[in-house]
Structures are given as C-alpha cells and as structure tokens.
C-alpha cells in the first residue's frame, strides 16, 4: 500500500485535538463530556456558575425557592425561551424564572460612538 494511505495525520481527530489545544492555550476551558447535557447543549454547572457569579441575589432566590432543582429549572426555562423567543431576544431581554426571578442572559455593553448619539449638550466639535 502507498505510504500516503497509511498516514493517519490527516484524520479529523488530530485536527480536533489541535483546535482544542490552541483554544486551551488562549484561556478557554476544556470540558469533560461527563458533565455535558446533550438535551440542552450546554454544561449545567457552567450555566449555574455564571448566573451565580453575575446575578447572585437572583440565583439565591431561585435556589431558595427550588432547592436542588434550581439548575434544572433554569436550564428548562432557558430552553423554552430560546425556542419561543429566539437567541437574540433572550440575549437582549434575559429570561424570567420562577415568578419574580429574572435572569439576564448577557451583560450590557458600554455605550460606544456607534450606539450613542450625543444630544446638543454633548456634541463634540472639531477645530479645523
């Protein structure tokens, strides 16, 4: 058999391994498939940790009202919101969970010149 056909370096698993290595070198976390929820396409522990880190009071209310089911309830509500409202709206508006608990899905970005139109008091003038 020709040597080019016995070389395995072109297999997808090597390419995938290279990509994962490069991402890890740039600060990405390498996940363990044991903690991955295929039905929701995410890591439940990561979602719970993110909400807890960014919205502690809301997370505490969710846990207080739902106990050990808090993460599962959050994941189910997120999936429902994504299905009904779409990704963009969920990112913009967040989701409501367990009545008064609202979870933001994204942090608001600071104003930039592209999104902020200055009023008369804040207009800049140039000296030409």
Q: What does the secondary structure layout of this molecule look like, with pairings?
A:
Blueprint: H1 3-6, H2 12-25, H3 44-54, H4 56-66, H5 70-85, H6 87-93, E1 95-97, E2 101-103
Antiparallel strand pairs: 1-2
Give a concise summary:
This protein has 128 residues and is mainly alpha-helical. Helix content is 49%, strand content 5%. It has six helices and two strands; from the N terminus they run H-H-H-H-H-H-E-E.
Describe the structure.
This protein is mainly alpha-helical and 128 residues long. Helix content is 49%, strand content 5%. The protein contains 6 helices and 2 strands; from the N terminus they run H-H-H-H-H-H-E-E. It has a two-stranded antiparallel sheet with strand order 1-2. It is elongated, with a radius of gyration of 22 Å. The C terminus is likely disordered.
Report the count of strand segments.
2
**Any idea what the radius of gyration is?**
22 Å
Broad structural category: mainly alpha
Number of helices: 6
Q: Going across the biggest sheet, name each strand in turn.
A: 1-2
Whole-number mean pLDDT: 79
Taking the sheet with the most strands, its summary is:
2 strands, antiparallel
Element pattern in H and E: HHHHHHEE
Cα distance spanning the termini: 74 Å
Indicate the percent of residues in helices.
Answer: 40-55%
Beta-strand residue percentage: under 5%
Q: Name the poorly predicted regions.
A: 112-128
What overall geometry do the principal axes of the alpha carbons give?
elongated
